[in-house]
Prior knowledge:
Radius of gyration: 13 Å
Shape: globular
Helix content: under 10%
Distance between the termini: 8 Å
Strand content: over 45%
Number of helices: 0
Largest sheet: 12 strands, parallel
Number of strands: 22
Oligomer: single chain
Amino acid sequence: MILGTIVNQSVILGTIVNQPVIIGTIVNQSVILGTIVNQSVILGTIANQSVILGTIVNQSVILGTIANQSVILGTISNQSVILETIVNQSVILGTIVNQSVILGTISNQSVILGTIANQSVILGTIVNQSVILGTIANQSVILGTIANQSVILGTIVNQSVIL
Length: 163
């Protein structure tokens, strides 16, 4: 079931598996080359994101704002709450493991090349991204809007609701 709006989507080359609900906004998304698996909660806004090259696994809570962030090269494991603001980030090359909720804003990033695993809800806005080349598996809720994307070249499996 697709109940929302998918507008001008550009490229999704990966696999979307077992995704139950998309309720948020994804606008002008540029490149996601990794895998999104079992995603649990993203409640913020992802806008103009540029590069995420690492793995996000079992993510638990990000409550702040990620905007124009430039480089994260390490590993974030079993992180439970991020309540601050990350500004001007451009590349995430490390691994984020065991996180479950993202409640903040991710702005001005363009490529996600890593893996997002064991997350269940995306409630925010993904803005200005253009290509998703990875795999989205066992994602349970995305509560935004997908806008300005043009091609889906991957596989969407067992998806239940896009609002």
